[in-house]
Amino acid sequence: MSVTNVVTQYVVQYGFRIMGAILVLLAALFVAKSVGKLFERWLNQQDLEPPLRVLLLRVVKALVVLLGLLIALDQLGLQIAPLVAGLSVAGLGIGLALQGVLSNVVAGLSIIFTKPYRVGEHISLLDVHGDVAKIDVFTTTLMHPDHSRIVIPNRKVVGEILHNFGTIRQLDLSIGVSYRSDIDATLQLLRDLVDRHPDVIKNPPPIIGIMGFADSSITLSIRPWVHVASVGSTQIQLNKAILEKLRTEGVDIPFPQREVRLLNPS
């Protein structure tokens, strides 16, 4: 039998199956794209984190394409059951080899669904802190105040003590004034100064009062709330404004003093 006859016989026998399989794959890709658009439109109406939306969208598209691939293989006359069993065994082996990666994925899904923090919030964990810039299935990325990035594997996050500051933080400023100062008038000066600062949040209101008593001064505490993005700049500006205001109003800011007595002058 010549090569031409063999090719002709093969085309006649399997040509329609191959064409059917190709059409099924093309239809699966088209359906996956259409279903993806509809599903994405529905996801945008839900209160979900962006990483979860991307993950669900990819899973739906992959399932549609996988279903089309299985139908195409069935059109070619291949037995699907042994193939699925083989893929299951291969998947088990791959899973054992990628335990660390899969643990990150599971932890990432746990973070996405339970929402212990969201993008834009300031968190502290594992002796690091920063603004949450990105939440992926594998990692969480923080933006440090010095504009460096901290990438944390998600498996390190789950199970650890997490301090979530949210989108606002409370500054902790203090200054010492003389015991001879009019405390009520000084506290009112500080309240007026803090209230006029544009970056200080009005609600919750700032906490201003006496924090303690030092050897040579009364320590006043100034604790206003500000947005996370303006923590550093507001702290610097308020420290400077408080010092200048107290000096202008004649409020004494004493420095530490020590008195030494000689019990035996000789």
Number of strands: 10
Distance between the termini: 129 Å
SS element count, helices: 7
Determine the structural class based on helices, strands and strand pairing.
Answer: alpha+beta
What can be said about this structure in brief?
This protein has 266 residues and is an alpha+beta fold. The chain has seven helices and ten strands. Helix 1 (3-43) packs antiparallel against helix 2 (50-75) and helix 6 packs across helix 7.
Task: Spell out the key features of this protein.
266 residues; alpha+beta; five-stranded antiparallel β-sheet; three-stranded antiparallel β-sheet; 19% strand; elongated
Characterise this structure.
There is one protein chain. 52% of the residues lie in helices and 19% in strands. It has seven helices and ten strands. The chain has helices at residues 3-43, 50-75, 80-97, 99-114, 154-157, 183-196, 231-248, and strands at 122-125, 128-135, 139-143, 149-153, 163-166, 168-170, 173-177, 207-213, 218-223, 225-227. A hairpin with a 3-residue loop joins strand 2 (128-135) and strand 3. Helix 1 packs antiparallel against helix 2 and helix 6 (183-196) packs across helix 7 (231-248). The protein is elongated.
Secondary-structure blueprint of this entry?
Layout: H1 3-43, H2 50-75, H3 80-97, H4 99-114, E1 122-125, E2 128-135, E3 139-143, E4 149-153, H5 154-157, E5 163-166, E6 168-170, E7 173-177, H6 183-196, E8 207-213, E9 218-223, E10 225-227, H7 231-248
